[in-house]
What does this fold into?
Amino acid sequence: MSFESNEYFDGNVKSIAFQSATLPGTLGVMDIGEYTFDTNAYEFMTVVNGALTVKLPGATDWKTFNAGETFEVEANVSFDVKVKVQTAYLCLYK
It folds into this structure.
């Protein structure tokens, strides 16, 4: 078995895809910056270390998620992320 590596936003976001016991996922890191992500599947995003400030689709306010916290994003939408410190995350896809 091999792992697929992904790189986005000029190398500022990197991830490694894997198959968990229940769902496909990625484990990744984000550098300081602001990003807009598009989803293809329903996502469960957990901050492993650091923090992500997120504006979910339809929301008017930004919300910060710290290490150990999870947010969910519907499939086929875009969401915005602000990263103030290098952050590690786990994303599972449903």
